[in-house]
Write a structure and sequence with these properties.
CATH topology: Protocatechuate 4,5-dioxygenase, Chain B
Helix content: 25-40%
Structural class: alpha/beta
Radius of gyration: 17 Å
Number of strands: 11
CATH class: Alpha Beta
Strand content: 15-25%
CATH architecture: 3-Layer(aba) Sandwich
């Protein structure tokens, strides 16, 4: 029996439930002054240099323009063969490193899973566990953007629960092996500080962002834990840094911002978009099946 498609969980809340309205909302994010300020061009480079990205996952009204900064960069490159989206399991339901084997759907249509990549990822401590994904929004919020900027993207969706840094390194070791020879874009989904004054959010978030820019997984983990930074996706972001730590990449911050930029509020949520890229073009897939 075919595996059921994972239906949208936060359509109508984090983003519009109607496909046409969702496309318009994504375009608003690209055109927003906090975003790129323009729609992605129709023409792409024949090369791909972006290996990984860190993007927010809040309601599009608040974080979508900042997320669009990173997705705009992806839109002008050769499309990757697949996308591995690393989300944070906010509820704690299911396995600590929970992989989805299903296709997903959004108001823009179906997002097919990459069965070969999923098979390669399905090794301890990673396991297929759909219960972790049933109501989780951190991966779902990225998919409409991927659908907008990539032609027919294929995905693997992996939720990572916060745990000891050694556990995240173990997850990353499986991911690193699975990605060998595969043309995959990595996406870590995270917001930064939650519900604190904007000045404090900026100060704390800059500490975490600094460790990401240094590509230091241990440093990011320790900074967030020791400083009590309420960065929800530190687990997937730390995992991404472990996966890519031996690759010749450079990291750059595209934009940091917060929800108080959209409407007045005493306490804000911080958001950032970052890219990890290669000076040389990334190769296409060479892995067999």
């Amino acid at each position: 029996m075919p595996t059921p498609v994972r239906p949208p969980s936060v359509a109508g809340a984090f983003y519009p439930a109607d496909g046409a309205a969702l496309s318009q909302e994504i375009e608003r994010c690209f055109l927003d002054p906090r975003g790129p300020g323009h729609l992605p061009p129709r023409h792409r480079s024949v090369e791909r240099r972006i290996r990984a990205m860190v993007v927010p996952h809040a309601g599009y009204r608040y974080s979508g323009a900042i997320a669009a900064q990173a997705f705009a960069a992806v839109a002008v490159e050769r499309p990757p063969a697949s996308v591995l989206v690393l989300g944070f399991n906010h509820s704690g339901r299911g396995a600590p490193a929970a992989l989805s084997a299903r296709d997903w759907s959004t108001p823009l249509g179906r997002v097919p899973a990459d069965p070969e990549l999923i098979h390669a990822l399905d090794h301890r401590p990673i396991e297929v566990d759909e219960s972790s994904h049933a109501r989780e929004h951190s991966i779902e919020a990225e998919l409409p953007f991927l659908q907008y900027v990539l032609p027919f993207p294929r995905v693997a969706c992996l939720n990572v629960t916060m745990g000891p840094v050694g556990f995240l390194a173990d997850v990353a070791a499986v991911v690193r092996k699975a990605l060998q020879g595969r043309d995959v874009l990595l996406v870590a989904s995270t917001d930064f500080s939650h519900y604190i004054p904007a000045e404090e959010a900026q100060r704390l978030d800059r500490l975490a962002i600094g460790r990401i820019l240094e590509r230091d997984p241990h440093g990011l983990y320790e900074t967030v834990v020791d400083r009590g930074i309420s960065m929800c996706g530190v687990a997937p972001t730390t995992t991404l840094l472990f996966v890519t730590q031996d690759e010749p990449l450079s990291a750059r911050l595209l934009r940091w911002g917060h929800s108080g930029e959209v409407e007045p509020m005493e306490d804000v949520v911080g958001y950032a978009s970052l890219l990890l890229g290669s000076e040389l073009p990334l190769p296409p897939s060479t892995a067999a099946g």
